[in-house]
Amino acid sequence: MAKSILQPLLFLSISVVTFLVCYLLAITVQVGTISYDNVSLILVVMGLSFLIHWIMFIPSYVFQTEKFYDLTGSLTYITILIFVVYIKQLLVHSVLDLRSILILSCIIIWTVRLGSFLFWRVLKDGEDKRFRTILPSFSQLFMTWTLSAAWVFIQLIAALVALTSLEAAKVPFGIVGYIGLGLWIFGFIFQVVADYQKTRFKSNPKNEGNFINEGLWRISRHPNYFGEIVLWTGIAVMAVPVMSGLQYFSLISPVFGFLLIYFVSGVRLLENKADKKWGNDSNYHEYKEKTPVFFPKFF
Questions:
Q1: Which among 126-135, 202-211, 233-242, 276-285 has the top mean pLDDT?
Q2: N- to C-terminal Cα distance for the chain?
Q3: 49-83: b or e for each residue (b if 16 or more CB lie within 10 Å)?
Q4: What digits encode the pLDDT tens for the residues 55-111?
Q5: What pTM does this model have?
Q6: Contact call for residues 211 and 274 (beta carbons, < 8 A)
Q7: How far apart, in whole angstroms, are the C-alpha atoms of residue 241 and residue 102?
Q8: How far apart, in whole angstroms, are the C-alpha atoms of residue 288 and residue 298?
Q9: Cα(190)–Cα(182) distance, rounded to whole angstroms?
């Protein structure tokens, strides 16, 4: 009885804390960015991210479906970016600088590619197995949608600082910007290739029930996630030259992404699943011993 009462309270508490952390982060990095009537644009889009996800939580719970969960995250990225550009033009009337154009382009390309891939995958598989125990619980599902809203906002925070900075147009893209762009290109290609290799591997009937250990998956057990962290690091690096003071806290973006992917939503869950499935397979144990969990072994 106690567990049935405490668990929903825990999930709701996590949701509240998550929102407050995002709020504190937004008001910390907002200095020197675009605002209207003393309300920063960064704070507004933080609220927009949560609003979109909380609205979509309703049909998700009512109809007990998770099929549009990843798609909602992708659409939220795009919605926030379009909203920021629109409001920026409305208030500042400035032409987008090279840094803003490249950051916008990189994020939208990544979002459309990954969002469509994940949506196609969940339609193909029929479900996202992570949600089997989550969907029946109102509080846990609400927490899951809330965490997704926080993920979108915190992942975007460095980019948002660059896009809304009042000094952005005065700072040249420079060598640091091109280093960031190079990181993004490398990470994006790495993730796309990893996803393609795994999709091709799984589509071959001969590989049914086997684990992938070829291509990029030979040098990392999770090369797609590694690519994602690298590309978001690239976004943050591109944004660095326009930052000052407390805005540097926005560099938490790729760090947050790594911690969430590695310890919460991605690597940990997949490693546990793989251990249960192939735990008695000597070839799998050999693969684990030779192949790093995350950071690729290039040499």
A1: 233-242
A2: 54
A3: bbebbeebbeebbeeeebeebbbbbbbbbebbbee
A4: 999 999 998 888 888 889 999 999 999 999 999 888 876 778 899 999 999 999 999
A5: 0.90
A6: yes
A7: 14
A8: 16
A9: 12
Contact 195/66 with Cβ under 8 angstroms? no
**Which residue, chain included where needed, has tokens 């996630």?**
225
* DSSP of 130-157: GGTTTTT-HHHHHHHHHHHHHHHHHHHH
Tokens found for residue 222 = 């999770």
Q: How far apart are CA 7 and CA 132, in angstroms?
A: 17
Place of tokens 């994940």: 118
Residue recorded with tokens 């910390």 = 28
Residue with tokens 């919460």: 264
* CA distances from residue 180 to 187, 235, 261, 263, 275 in whole angstroms, order as listed: 11, 6, 21, 25, 36
CA distances (Å), origin 126, targets 57, 59, 67, 129: 19, 18, 8, 9
